Amino acid sequence: MWICISKKAARAGAQIVRQVSNFADDLGESLIEAKKVFLNDQDNKKNVKSLKIAILGLPNAGKSTLINHLIGRPVCATSSKIHTTRKKASAIFCLDDTQLVFIDTPGLVGRGDGVDDLRNYFLDSAKERTWEYNKKTYSDQTPDTIVQEIVKAKFLDDLPQELPYLVDVVAEHVEKCEDGSMNVVVNVNCPSARIARMIIGRSGERVKKVAKEAEQVLCTTFTTAVRLKIAIPIKEEPLALEKQRF
């Protein structure tokens, strides 16, 4: 098959070929640099160690509390009622070249003696392998999930009997501000207006107490100032209650 090409088209084609060739050269150099960065990063991880630990036990035995003490921040929700932990979650602790991944399983103890010794035992038991998480990561849960679980745990502590198990806690808004602080809005959906009013309490005192306690825990968890608002919809008219500032 013969194809006739004019001189003008030939010149244009040659220019395109040169551009493609230059692009290929640039791309090749970029790939080489990317490979160098990757290899350097891998070299930096050659001597790191990690250990994965599953914490097992009876319900309300203090598994989540122990993990929080071991990693130094409350990323696993805790309360005095059973079944606070409903889903498996991981908490991460890093020290120098060693990473510990604690797996909190569904099932309160105080800090107690031996926590530091137990953590050191885990650090010494870690094997040389690539880390599973970034050094700045402290949980495999999203910030929204952490907020929901901590607020739900505070309702478990403050509400009577089975009442807290009937509500659905949803993090509607989690925002990190320029100064590093956080604004958080949580919706608490109730099966009936009667239960919603019971959760709110007289003049909103009960939900204000929960918001204040949850806000304090969130400040420790995220190591920054957290402003928490809890909204409880009643007959499609949300009532927003913000923590009183003293």
Automatic annotation (TrEMBL):
SUPFAM superfamilies cross-referenced by the UniProt entry: P-loop containing nucleoside triphosphate hydrolases, Prokaryotic type KH domain (KH-domain type II)
GO cellular component, as recorded: mitochondrial matrix
Entry keywords, A to Z: GTP-binding, Nucleotide-binding
A Pfam family the protein falls into: MMR_HSR1
InterPro entries according to UniProt: GTP-bd (IPR006073), GTPase_Era-like (IPR005662), KH_dom-like_a/b (IPR015946), KH_sf_prok-type (IPR009019), P-loop_NTPase (IPR027417)
GO molecular function, one term: ribosomal small subunit binding
Highest taxon above the source species: Eukaryota
Residue span, G domain: 52-118
Biological process according to GO: ribosomal small subunit assembly
Entry protein name: G domain-containing protein
Species, as recorded: Nasonia vitripennis
Organism phylogeny: Eukaryota, Metazoa, Ecdysozoa, Arthropoda, Hexapoda
